[in-house]
């Protein structure tokens, strides 16, 4: 293939299948890309944009274009093309998530520790949710503040309440409290951080990218899928790892190295997240679709009056 005709935006893998999406997200959530300097990312963006313009530099190989697109997708927002903050990128989910989750699982016994690590986690989540929102629906600083306060309060109330409630429960039940708090907070944090999409609708297009209007029902569908993905992302590590640690801690060698229990959990969470971040992101297509018949009556009638039966589905970026 001549590189002048190379379509750099064409999916490298079939996005209609889970395995195709899994390969795609393994590619763009690669934690190693988070270590690269901004100058390297900007170079990748410049190469992607030159390829789109049909002016690929002489000597550029197809593999270089694929790698540039990988860096571009990992660091630049799909709606705006702006470079995302480092902590909010999905490629930072493994190093950031493993540290926070590992310490949440380790320090779950005292209320001050629970409060601190849940606050750190929700601050991290709020930044991730804001960074990966559908940027076509702006959110005000005041709304960000309300979303952050509400989600953090939900996490703390759930964690502290369950922590006190499980004082007399089996030890393993207490170890699962952090996951319950994280799941509850995700159900609040994500919708609140993306409330503008729910209130005003999300931009929907036809198959060719032509804008058709805004839909609140599409927003609700996309955000619901993101919530499910985020809870799924955290579940294996936060449910299975406590079982593993409880059994390991019975061995004498583990009892002699209690100071290493935290780092051990951090590393083990990292192993889970390396696989679970791309797997959870792959549960639903990034470019979400919805039947026109399921849209709000006003938008549905508008589309049908303009396009008749030619447009059967609308498409939108659900965010991550």
Automatic annotation (TrEMBL):
<dbReference type="InterPro" id="IPR004686">
    <property type="entry name" value="Mtc"/>
</dbReference>
<feature type="transmembrane region" description="Helical">
    <location>
        <begin position="227"/>
        <end position="245"/>
    </location>
</feature>
<keyword id="KW-0812">Transmembrane</keyword>
<dbReference type="GO" id="GO:0015075">
    <property type="term" value="F:monoatomic ion transmembrane transporter activity"/>
</dbReference>
<feature type="transmembrane region" description="Helical">
    <location>
        <begin position="266"/>
        <end position="285"/>
    </location>
</feature>
<comment type="similarity">
    <text>Belongs to the sideroflexin family.</text>
</comment>
<keyword id="KW-0496">Mitochondrion</keyword>
<keyword id="KW-0813">Transport</keyword>
<dbReference type="GO" id="GO:0005743">
    <property type="term" value="C:mitochondrial inner membrane"/>
</dbReference>
<protein>
    <recommendedName>
        <fullName>Sidoreflexin</fullName>
    </recommendedName>
</protein>
<keyword id="KW-0029">Amino-acid transport</keyword>
<keyword id="KW-1133">Transmembrane helix</keyword>
<keyword id="KW-0472">Membrane</keyword>
<dbReference type="GO" id="GO:0140300">
    <property type="term" value="P:serine import into mitochondrion"/>
</dbReference>
<dbReference type="Pfam" id="PF03820">
    <property type="entry name" value="SFXNs"/>
</dbReference>
